[in-house]
Amino acid sequence: MSAEPILELRNVHSGYGTIKALKGVSLKVYPGEVVAIIGANGAGKSTTLMTICGIIAAEKGEVLYDGKKINKVSPEKLPIKGLCQVPEGRRIFPRLSVEENLILGAFHRKDQEGINKDIEYMYSLFPILGERCKQHGGTLSGGEQQMLAIARALMTQPKVLLLDEPSLGLAPIIIQQIFDIIKDINEKNGTTILLVEQNANLALQAATRGYVLETGEITLEDKADALLHNPEIRKAYLGE
Ligand code: ATP
């Protein structure tokens, strides 16, 4: 593990008006890791990702990316710097084709040859997207839209990919496919991944380390394997 985290939260507080959703969250993500944040409904998982991206302002504390404070960087600038989020609910462009969605993911890039190569790479990672390349994004199934959202984010060539509930609303077989690809992206491209998930079992199986978030506070941090075998975690989050 590299000595310096690529992403770090230091005592971050944020929320929605009087609702304090994050109450001093600190965490570190090192280059090459897959880190999972697990927690119940409403624990603050999505708020954590949105605060990292600046969609919600941190009221207190610091968000550091590549050693630099990014609290004041506007959200649309972050993908250009290599920090890209796949939001919950996918948010692809429904009236644009699969291919146009992918091209938009590369909005800041000028290397047309590289863009074409990456589109082909996305079709090799997600063959169904290649088959559906001319189809409107909005007509894809839920699982295909999730794949498109991940592929579009990868078109930005992220150093760090933030994934919000990649399993949400999908059939088990599709979830497994998506998690296999997440592992692949990490292993083959070296992309660092921070993912938040209600499905703790899946998330911890894919992750190297994990954090447990409870009502806006980190209550436990450990290697993913240790969390998977922790009786408290098994009882609270793994349905035992
Ligand atoms: P889930 O798994 O259900 O998506 P989560 O862990 O991602 O949950 P958040 O969505 O981050 O949780 O919500 C954290 C807290 O902030 C919750 O109490 C939630 O009700 C509140 N919250 C989230 N979004 C808003 C909003 N737009 N306005 C007001 N409160 C909000």
TrEMBL record:
InterPro entries assigned to the protein according to its UniProt record, in alphabetical order: AAA+_ATPase, ABC_branched_ATPase_LivF/BraG, ABC_transporter-like_ATP-bd, ABC_transporter-like_CS, BCAA_Transport_ATP-bd_LivF, P-loop_NTPase
Keywords: Amino-acid transport, ATP-binding, Nucleotide-binding, Transport
Biological processes per GO annotation: L-amino acid transport
Pfam name, any one: ABC_tran
Listed CDD domains: ABC_TM1139_LivF_branched (cd03224)
Superkingdom to which the source organism belongs: Bacteria
Gene3D superfamilies xrefs: P-loop containing nucleotide triphosphate hydrolases
Domain spans labelled ABC transporter: 7-240
Xref: PROSITE patterns: ABC_TRANSPORTER_1, ABC_TRANSPORTER_2
GO molecular function: ATP binding; ATP hydrolysis activity; branched-chain amino acid transmembrane transporter activity
Family: Belongs to the ABC transporter superfamily.
Record-given protein name: Branched-chain amino acid transport system ATP-binding protein
Provenance organism: Desulfocicer vacuolatum DSM 3385
